[in-house]
């Protein structure tokens, strides 16, 4: 212990001196100098009390920089040296089971001699990914936690060992695992006073050490007596490890458990499985979870079939864990469930399970086809709808349609597998199961307060006969164990437990508090059947492992469907629980089930009248919120579209957990994988454990770079702080590659997406009234790294660029992400256009930031010059190193081969991306900036044009070429469809492109709906359909060209045959027409049908279906029918932006429901 004390003192002294003297890098000194300096002092030796008041977020004081609230009852000034429980969410990622780093792994500015201690594994009570909270410096500005290189990311593991010392021993503290709330040993008042006396005596450090040393032998004897008394008190208490089939059963060679002294701080588990709480423990342990966003829709709709759960030798994630496997296989990196919720760390999850008495599988999650089962790749085969949600998630509502006959699993698989790419997909609605009656299952959530949540489940019988339904609301802890050979998947968190309280209540205890879960059904005359098991994998058909009975993840399925009553735990405790209601409902009738979860010390008896009023109130608040979104001009149909679009966006939040380094380590532990090439091996730095916006929580339960940027812009209208957080966390070191690349998606993190983060940062900055320059500066500093990476994609100093599919999967004649013949290279019109856009967006940032700091003007000149260089290069003729084809009046990708160049004569939306690279910049009161622009205005007037004394217009393409491209765009024979701009010109329907690449022949033909090839799995198609994301971005650039015409008093006229066959029309008229076409996809036509729903007349005639809307990934260019993912509010939610544009309206100020995010620390701004 003396060794650690000395090391801690040296480390603290060095840190304090250096942090106060020079800080830790620009912009970090002010935050970390006063924070870490005073913080590590008392933590290291436990005695240097005069250095300050605590580590940020742990010991509050004037220098603390992270205002995470501490457990209730903790004194304002804690005696220095006492080990304190870290609030869950301590701002450093801690890999599960990571060995304790030696002290030299903490990077301090001043080198100090630190003795090395042997590394000791730390049994982590937290999940293997502790959520990393952003840090706040004294100016209360948001900084992503991952940005700080000066502090080891494993400091969270190191801290508990730095805290050990004689003071801790004197206070009766254990020398291991002292920091987690659930493991913090209660300190007696007598021992606390002795520590306070020592700390407050002002005696020299060495004298204090002697005092502690002389008293140590006496204290050791006292502690031994205490332990004997404790053993006697708990000799009749059964610990969770001793429960037959416990989820915490460990392999004997790995950990020896003292079964006679297993005391959980604050509570013990009695012989009958109940939790007995000790006096005063509740109030002192769990107030730090006081967070209005604690509960939310953070649970995925699908965890099986993801890369995060894939440990197969062939990287076939779809087959490693199938839909059927998910019933019994515990996940590693997340959870899923039917219309479920979770706490903000996805430790405690809640969802719904159903059984109609005929299915072969308990309906716990949504079903869909894998990439090889569907004729167009993976595809959801269920019907559910997100109907309501508001930004603080105090009211949420969704609807699931559940057949009353056996679910057609085999029919869906067999029929789709038999179909070709040319055939339509066979959907569940085509099977006829809804003709024979079905259940409308409405799931509503309402918050009682910050920590209280109520759920109402209403099952309506939409059949002709009385039917019986099993309703099982269930709760479960995320399994936070790591994969081991041979994959027993046993969680290690001794603190997680659910146990029966009474016939309708369950006690739940885990890291974030003690909770009371209550169930009630006004339609059910008796108490529900409470079921318990553990969220662990069932290893085999045998229910025993080493003679110990196992109660596993599939116990409820076996209990209900297979009628195996012994599958559930008779001791009525575990890590998964549920309340089973079996109801028989007449035709047109309904059954209702409630559950309520509250912090135990705030728990009140469930009351049906109070619950009904709660939902009435929350629904009224949601109505009021949506009235701030729409205006009186909007029709009822438009308001309904907007409401469901926004609800889908809010439901798309998901806790996403992916630590690539840990995943790779686990992958290599599997014997069949040793020596295999590992996916994403160049991204071992990536450590994600955040609530993120997902494109689609079933089809795409993982982020994609440009999807999230678009979602953030859309989200900024209603919760601008959360939108900022999404962008900043994506630009942090935990995501961005050290080379500056922003991750693509988990299937290939190195696959480039368009650089829309810069565009999104600007959009959000502008919506915030251009007031948050700190946010813009922070984004800009990180985007400089990203800019450097994009510059590396240049082809031979040509200012022409090429890099992969760029989010447009099969847009080209070949797989642009695949390998090319030897000696071949590919340069791309879209990649070059995106780099030009990035230069413009960064240029606009430097102008904005330069208004307060003129040093940014140096970078402004660089981006301006780079943009002009790209403009000159791309406009060269295709035979002269450029991408412009004079004969076709279009921009093409080009192959460079050993024998020369080969243009790809494919008129796709990739060739329209350069149109996006245009903007108007105001140089008012910026004479230095104006001078920098003057040179380029003189040299390149076709790309840089002065509009007036204050404004400059920049365009990648000269106006005559813009006009030529717009003729293609607004021609119904090419890009303009009845429902928006096609992704591939219709000219390729009659004239497919045939091309030979190397020794292979390829062909591309216009396909207005689903893909006609297996490229990129076949579930996405950029060879004809309408994509809202690109249409929305194109509308933005058309606005800029139109604004340019207004500034010069010369409205722009273009050829638009569908509006005027013989005369040109104004660009504004063309923009308006495009908006109408896009909105026509969603709005009811004269027959009451929405084109997106295809030919199914239920959505136009049946009152139970008529109001329901799905938000598809893309749309058939000729019919408007939805294709691909059906809940892609990731960017199809842009229909809401289209409605704002069409009505030229802006939403009112941010609703009072919009919570100021704890992470942001800044003001809650109105989104204009």
From TrEMBL:
Keywords: Signal. Pfam families: MGH1-like_GH. The keyword Ribonucleoprotein does not apply. GO terms for molecular function: Glc3Man9GlcNAc2 oligosaccharide glucosidase activity. Residues 190-231, 1147-1168 are annotated as: Disordered. Residues 212-231 have a biased composition (Basic and acidic residues). Gene3D superfamilies: 1.50.10.10. Residues 1-19 form the signal peptide. This is Mannosylglycerate hydrolase MGH1-like glycoside hydrolase domain-containing protein. One of its GO terms (biological process) is oligosaccharide metabolic process. InterPro entries: 6-hairpin_glycosidase_sf, 6hp_glycosidase-like_sf, Glycoside_hydrolase_63, MGH1-like_GH. The keyword Endoplasmic reticulum does not apply. Residues 956-1129 form the Mannosylglycerate hydrolase MGH1-like glycoside hydrolase domain. Transmembrane segments: none annotated. It comes from the Eukaryota.
